[in-house]
Amino acid sequence: MSSAITHDPSKRAATTFRTDARRAAPGLLIAFLAPAVLLYTGFALYPVLRTAYNSLHTIKPQGAIDYVGFANFATILFADGIFWKAVANTALFTIVATLVDVLGGLLLALCLYARAPLSGLLRVVWFTPVLISYVVVGVIWVWIYDYDWGFANALLRWLGLGAFEQSWLGHPSTALWSVMGAHIWKWLGFNMIVFLAALYALPQEILGAAELDNCGWVAKLFYIIMPMLRGTIVNLLVLSFIGKMMVFDLIWIMTGGGPLWATETVSTYVYKRAFEWNTFDLGYPSSIAVLWFIIILAFVAFMTWALRPRDRLEF
User: Can you tell me the distance from the alpha carbon of 63 to that of 114, in angstroms, rounded to the nearest whole number?
Assistant: First the structure.
């Protein structure tokens, strides 16, 4: 075995590269790492630390800074009703959209994996929204939801259901769900492609053995395919959860957080407090951002712990 490895050019080159890397001068390693470290520090680490610093202060114009400790956090938790409305909207958006995105992506991937009719065309159609920017998606769906000439109400009128016409983005009871539909439409194809890749990576021997044992499609899905896709499902749930807890772009384009705070999320609220409202204080929105970061981190840690595999699955 050792002689085979020694005479394999690719393995011998990899071994030589690792040996040279260990012997490289520290100055050379620092020279290669310095650009990445500087970029990370300037665009990721410093903003985080600066925001944490701002959260403990009242920052007024012309550099007036007053230390207030945890007063901003106390105000957020006990005296800011808009913040809790934004939290409720974000929680509803995150839970529903995450489940629909991941489960819907899995169902679409299963349809393509089973070679449904026109599967090649459907793959392109379902994945195309992922490639479209949030601005374009927002504008498209604002047109679709327009009360007078939008496609949604036009379809209802064509079907004879004109009584169900709505000002989809203008009514507090439908605005959040309407934005949620646009967001799901955009990201459903991404989860579909990830699941489809995972399905094609499954060992065909196990699936073939299940078919030989006359295992039905539903039983094969729940007892064979789903357990082997557990890691992919967990990763997509966590990624989707994080993205939707920080949702900003689409809501800002479509509704701006209105009407009557119906689509206000924590991210849009932070932006308004920092740059739109004439409060002239960057400390308070920084406190909201820090608090929300801690909440997201805690939920991600809990989800990772709760969804971790209890038994090792080998295949």
Answer: 62
Q: How many other CB atoms are found less than 10 A from the CB of residue 226?
A: 12
Cα 259 → chain centroid: 24
Q: Give the residue ranges of the chain where pLDDT is below 50.
A: 1-6
Residue 88 is predicted with a pLDDT of 97
How high is the pLDDT of residue 23? 61
Residue type, 25: A
Q: Which domain holds residue 23?
A: 2-54
87 and 43 belong to one structural domain: no
Which pair of tokens denotes residue 97? 């959209």
Q: Are residues 37 and 93 in the same domain?
A: no
Write the single-letter amino acid at 226: M
135 within a domain of the structure (yes/no)? yes
260: left (phi over 0), alpha (psi -120 to 50) or beta: left
Please count the residues of the chain.
Answer: 315
